[in-house]
Amino acid sequence: DQANPVYQETVMSKKELTTLPNDIISFGSHTHTHPRLSSLNAKDIKQELETSRRELKKLFKKEITSIAFPHGDFNELVLEISRKCGYSSVYSITPEPYFRNSQQEHVTGRTVAYPWDWKLEFYLKIKGAYSWLPIAFNIKRNLLKK
Question: Do the Cβ atoms of 45 and 78 come closer than 8 Å?
């Protein structure tokens, strides 16, 4: 969101990023311009994924094989193109279990934990109490398709 005051905030410079230890930190893509990928056509999805991957490979001098989808947003076309672009691991914010089914084993979901979460809320998150959310997200996704 370009209206957000932190939109142009620089957390680390390129030089600072390249000094981080590669043996304990891995780097992945987040697209080139942070769009909602499911709203793009195939050509634009491919451009977003390839440009980001190419620039990160140049910066870190190593293959980039993972991507976290902006806004956690993806559909079957995005998954297909991400595979063709060479991403072996993709991440969404949908709290999907690992290896849910053969089509989705390419996607790893996450449950967001915040520093301000209550202790009970954090405990419930790490114990899987939010595992019902993928069902709700899939229902929402299917309703939006119509």
Answer: yes
pLDDT in tens, 47-88: 999 999 999 999 999 999 999 999 888 898 999 999 999 999
- The strand pairing partners of 90, in sequence order, are 67, 107
Alpha helices, H only, the chain: 14-18, 42-60, 76-84, 119-126, 133-145
Please state, in angstroms and rounded to a whole number, the distance separating the CA atoms of residues 131 and 138: 12
Compute the distance between CA of residue 7 and CA of residue 9 in angstroms, rounded to an integer.
6
Amino acid at 136: A
Q: Contacts from 98-104 at CB under 8 Å and sequence distance 24+? A: 100/134
Distance of alpha carbon 133 from alpha carbon 110, whole angstroms: 11
